[in-house]
Amino acid sequence: MTESKLREQICVFARSLFERGLTPGSSGNISARLPEGGWLMTPTDASMGFLDPARISKLDANADWISGDKPTKEIPLHTALYDTRHGAGAVVHLHSTHSVAVSMLPEIDPRAVLPPLTPYYLMRVGQTALVPYHRPGDPQVAGAIRGLAGKYSAVLLANHGPVVAGKSLEAAVYAMEELEETAKLYLMLRGLNPRALSPAQIQDLAQTFKLDLHPDDDHDATHDHAH
């Protein structure tokens, strides 16, 4: 994909996310890897609903800002995912309401934030890790992400919001949307003892769609989230 097309695609997806209320005000950011190296990133303090393709920030392979508006302060967050998820072509970070809410709940397992409620959560997201609170832009969050050793493509930043990496921008956006919808389902069903997918159903999905659903080998994907 050409740089020009990628700039346009970032704006289209960002506006779609904004218009559906998934990231309010000037919150959230998107980055995408350029074919020749480096990245495009949404600018700091820019609304995702009103991005200008020509003003999107461009960074070189060292993550140094080279053109466009000043980039998001969350560069360390993005680069940590690219460094550890080597197949990642894009990263999306939002302040979506339901995912943020789940990140604050006391019963959440940091190795598997959400139970396996739907097949598409497992197919598009897998499992989601929880990273302890860091202030926005804190470079130490990069160390926390790197500590996950690339095992997770989706991470919840406590009291802040979700971050998802994908092979393409489209894949990252769709995985982010699936994560938010699953968080919404979890909150709707919390305390109602819902039926999650069984181990046999999870294994069938993993075999059929070649999924790696156990980033932590010592952890059971069907961990009980009851409280």
TrEMBL record:
Q: What's an example GO cellular component term for this entry? A: cytosol
Protein keywords: Carbohydrate metabolism, Lyase, Metal-binding, Zinc
**Pfam families linked:** Aldolase_II
Carries keyword Metal-binding?
Answer: yes
Q: What cofactors does the UniProt entry give for this protein?
A: Zn(2+)
Keyword Zinc applies:
yes
Biological function:
Catalyzes the decarboxylation of 3-oxo-tetronate 4-phosphate to dihydroxyacetone phosphate (DHAP) and CO(2).
Protein name, please?
3-oxo-tetronate 4-phosphate decarboxylase
Q: Can you name the source organism? A: Acidisoma silvae
